[in-house]
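Notes for week 9. Today we move from apo structures to complexes. The key idea is that a small molecule is not decoration. When we ask for a structure prediction with zinc ion present, the ligand SMILES becomes part of the input, just like the chain. The input block below holds both the sequence and the ligand string. Read it once before you look at the output, and try to guess where the molecule might sit.
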Amino acid sequence: MNIVIKCDCGNKIEMDVCPKKYLQLRDNLERGNFCFDGAEIKDNKLKEFRIRCCKCNNWITLGVG
Ligand SMILES: [Zn+2]
């Protein structure tokens, strides 16, 4: 699978992940001038996390539960 994150400022990262393999998201984000910017955990479950663009400081929150 290929995961692409593209910011409005043009900053972009593409992450190739082999089928059934593991991706270390944080390391890959940082390589592409993005960063993992914190998460909200409730009842020991990840509820949402934030990805920030280090070039323009825009961010998005992704919900997962
Ligand atoms: Zn940006």
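The radius of gyration is 12 Å.
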